[in-house]
Design a protein that fits this description.
The structure holds two protein chains of two kinds. By secondary structure, chain A is α/β, with parallel strands linked by helices. Chain A has a single domain, classed as Rossmann fold (3-Layer(aba) Sandwich), CATH 3.40.50.2300. Helix content of chain A is 43%, strand content 22%. In chain A, a hairpin with a 2-residue loop joins strand 5 and strand 6. The longest helix of chain A is centred in the last third of the chain and has 18 residues. Chain B is an alpha+beta fold. Chain B is 46% helix and 23% strand. Chain B has 18 helices and 22 strands. In chain B, the strands form five sheets. Chain B has a five-stranded parallel β-sheet, with helices on both faces. In chain B, strands 7-6-10-9-8 form a five-stranded antiparallel β-sheet, with helices on both faces. Chain B has a five-stranded antiparallel β-sheet with strand order 12-11-15-14-13, with helices on both faces. In chain B, helix 2 packs parallel to helix 3, helix 13 packs antiparallel against helix 14 and helix 16 runs antiparallel to helix 18. Chain B starts with 5 loop residues before the first strand and ends in a 5-residue tail after the last strand. The chains are: A alpha/beta, B alpha+beta. Chains A and B meet through helix 1, helix 3 and helix 4 of A and helix 13 and helix 14 of B.
Chain lengths: 129, 658
């Protein structure tokens, strides 16, 4: 069964291409949300195994989306990975890949890095499920 | 003496006697003109108006009796002779009147007309002689008093003075009469000033021994206490045998001359002291440029005594070019008659070259003709050097001022470069998103397209390499700016604000802006690089101040908040990393200026956007401030307040309290 990945990023072209790359692996089903305010509603419907979340977005920054998910009983356990240009790769490395308590990938990240991160964050679920 | 037209006043209260007297006088040739008075008052009235050659008066009048009658008449008559008439019983009284100055007296009934006329005639003559004598005496006395010389003669016997005679004029010089000298043999020496007595005695001794000593000037004490200077000249008198038998002395009062001489000496001493004690060099030259005088200071300068300078010219002491210059100036002064002042070079023989300030002026004789020049000069080398030092220091100061200005410009330039660097980092950050997109696209293509085509593989490989390079550059740029800018420390924002407000106090006062501060107590610390955040605060405060050019109110407030709303305005892409519920420290800066026009509000954080005139604002203040705050993980928000003016809010994450 394919893992469901919710991708929240206001950069349409980036999110579409990442979706193509992930789906090309045949291992993931990807739902793209370009408007961060729609993330919570989309997640409730899509029921993602993991959410890849940009931080700098108009209308609602990534931090607020995290707060929404944490406050939502249906979504509070969804693993969240920041995928952002706002944080530098060097800093992410300094912080052992954890920013604001969440794992983080600095843009531009390779497809391989992203896949590895998804697998790492969802491995427990797979074992459980 | 002819007795014609002699006016005679007869004063007699007895009409019969009076009439008799008048009758007697009118007999003969009518040479008398008679006026009669009956009382003293009557007589005084007559005498006040007219002159009488003779007055004949009874001493017993109704309004005056006895000797008083005579004295009153004497006062009223002035110089007219008076003959008194007495009865046979009071001849004594008449005699008393004669002693008091009446010319004669006649006893009633004992004289006839001829006797009367003779008495009058003699009275007038005697009176005239007396008058002449008196005049002569007075003249003589005046003469005596004005003579300032006297002589004295000393008789000697065996070389010892036995008798001394002073001429009468000694009184005017010494105040003592010849008789007083006669009576007091020691007086002549006693009156001599004690300091001069020995010399006077010595002179007397020498003349007594037959020598003719030189005249001696000495002082003596006048009877009235004044000190007089006299010149005492003595000459011996010898007998046929040649031995001194006497000597004659002449005392001449020379007080006036001595006083004048003393004054002159004093005056000379004064000028001498002035000229010789002044630190200036003073010289005089005649029309032929020869020195006629030089003070000691100048003599020292030349290293020559005065007598080796007087008569010489500048050419004898100075190099020819200097001497020529001095003489040219001298002649100019003598020709123009005007004072000359200059700074010139002076180099004495064997000395070093000095700068002197010189003033030259012409010398005139009593008739006003120029007869030479006098000059005064003084060394100003030290002053010139000090001036030169001052000028050099001034030039150095100007130079360092220019350097400081240049450095300042460089600093401004550096600040701009830093701003641009910061912006470049921001730009690099924005480039990462499209780069990420390109990388994604490339990844997809690499897996999808026919990988057997060498050209396609080459193109994809080149693109991958290019993306890698761009990513590397942007990362380096960001790492560079981050490494430089984030050296944070836990700081108290209230304290930093207080320090910052001190920096702008002057500007506030200047623009009459009221400052209101409202600082929250126990404000949590924030992790910031103090200098950077202070730069932001100054920038924001100055913006507010500039917005209130005609005064207003500046409110600075700090608070601790828990974030309850999103900071994100529509369309903004602020890089805030705050989450709802985060604990933040805010600084709010409110002004009462005109606010920001709506159309500019969206552009205020754009680089190089400014409403200030060229050269006043760079348009980098707000973008850089924003960048700095964002690098601290904070945010800046700028809104127009509903009540007018602008509110700027700076939010920084509060440090976790321990």
């Amino acid at each position: 069964m394919k893992k469901k990945v919710l991708l929240v990023d206001d950069e349409k072209s980036f999110s579409n291409l990442l979706k193509l790359n992930l789906e090309q692996t045949q291992r993931y089903e990807v739902c793209v949300v370009n408007c961060s305010e729609d993330a919570q509603a989309a997640a409730r419907e899509f029921k993602p195994d993991i959410m890849l979340l940009d931080i700098i977005m108009p209308r609602m920054p990534g931090g607020n989306v995290v707060a929404q998910f944490e406050a939502d009983p249906a979504l509070k356990d969804v693993p969240i990975v920041f995928l952002t240009a706002a944080v530098q790769r060097s800093r992410v490395e300094d912080m052992d890949g954890i920013i604001s308590g969440r794992p983080c990938l600095a843009k531009p990240a390779s497809v391989e890095e992203i896949v590895a991160m998804i697998e790492k964050q969802t491995s427990g679920q797979a074992q459980n499920g | 003496m002819a007795l014609r037209n002699r006016r005679v006043l007869i004063i007699e209260d007895n009409a019969m006697d009076s009439s008799l007297l008048a009758k007697m006088l009118r007999q003969g040739y009518g040479e008398f003109e008679v006026v009669r008075a009956e009382s003293m008052a009557d007589a005084e009235g007559q005498l006040a108006g007219e002159h009488f050659h003779t007055i004949i008066s009874d001493l017993t009048l109704p309004d005056s009796q006895g000797l008083a009658t005579f004295t009153r008449l004497h006062d009223a008559a002035g110089h007219s002779p008076i003959i008194v008439i007495s009865g046979t019983d009071d001849e004594e009284l008449a005699l008393a009147a004669v002693r008091e100055g009446a010319q004669d007296y006649l006893v009633k009934g004992r004289f006839d007309a001829a006797g009367l006329r003779r008495a009058i005639k003699y009275a007038i003559e005697r009176h005239q002689i007396e008058q002449a004598l008196q005049d002569s005496e007075q003249h003589y006395r005046h003469l005596l008093e004005s003579i300032t010389d006297y002589t004295y003669a000393v008789k000697l016997r065996d070389g010892v003075a036995v008798e001394t005679k002073h001429s009468p004029t000694c009184v005017s010089v010494t105040g003592y009469t010849a008789e007083q000298y006669q009576e007091d043999p020691e007086l002549w020496l006693r009156m001599v000033h004690p300091d001069d007595q020995a010399a006077v005695v010595e002179q007397a001794k020498r003349v007594s021994s037959g020598e003719t000593p030189v005249a001696l000037d000495h002082r003596l004490r006048h009877k009235n206490g004044d000190l007089r200077w006299v010149r005492n000249t003595v000459v011996p008198r010898r007998d046929e045998g040649g031995s001194a038998i006497a000597y004659d002395g002449l005392i001449r009062d020379i007080t006036a001359r001595k006083t004048a001489e003393e004054k002159l000496v004093k005056s000379e001493a004064f000028y001498h002291s002035l000229v010789e004690s002044l630190p200036q060099h003073i010289i005089r030259k005649d029309l032929n440029e020869r020195f006629t005088f030089a003070n000691q200071k100048f003599c020292q300068l030349l290293g020559k005594p005065l007598d080796q300078i007087v008569g010489k010219t500048d050419f004898d002491f100075y190099q020819p070019d200097l001497a020529r210059k001095y003489q040219t100036d001298d002649r100019h002064v003598m020709k123009s008659g005007r004072t000359f002042e200059a700074v010139e070079v002076n180099q004495a023989p064997g000395g070093e070259q000095r700068y002197v300030n010189v003033i030259k002026s012409p010398i005139h004789d009593l008739e006003g003709h120029v007869i030479g020049i006098q000059g005064i000069f003084w060394d100003i080398t030290e002053r010139m050097r000090a001036d030169e030092d001052l000028r050099r220091t001034h030039a150095e100061l100007r130079k360092s001022h220019a350097e400081v200005k240049a450095a300042q410009l460089q600093l401004i330039q550096a600040a701009k470069m830093e701003s641009i660097g910061t912006l470049a980092a921001g730009v690099a950050h924005e480039v990462k998103n499209p780069l990420a997109t390109l990388a994604m696209g490339l990844s997809y293509l690499e897996k999808s397209v026919n990988s057997t085509d060498e050209n396609v593989r080459m193109v994809l490989s080149e693109m991958r390499a290019a993306i890698g390079r761009a990513d590397k550059i942007t990362r380096e740029l960001l790492d560079f700016s981050a490494a430089r800018q984030l050296d944070v420390q836990s700081e108290d924002l209230n304290r930093l604000l207080e320090q910052t407000l001190v920096l702008i106090r002057h500007q506030l006062n200047k623009q009459q802006i009221e400052l209101i501060t409202d600082f929250a107590p126990a404000l949590p610390h924030v992790s910031i690089e103090k200098n950077q955040i202070q730069q932001v605060l100054v920038n924001l405060l100055m913006n507010s101040i500039h917005a209130m050019s005609s005064g207003g109110k500046l409110t600075v407030r700090t608070s601790k908040k828990r974030l309850t709303r999103s900071l994100h305005e529509e369309g903004s892409r602020s890089s805030t990393q705050f989450f709802l519920g985060d604990s933040v420290v805010t600084v709010e800066i409110e002004d009462t200026g005109p606010g920001i026009p709506q159309e500019n509000l969206a552009k205020i954080f754009d680089p190089f956007f400014t409403t200030k005139p060229t050269g006043v604002g760079t348009g980098l203040g707000l973008p850089v401030s924003k960048k700095i705050v964002e690098l601290h993980g904070g945010a800046i928000e700028i809104i127009n307040r509903v009540e007018g003016g602008v509110r700027v809010t700076v939010m920084l994450r509060a440090d976790k309290t321990l």
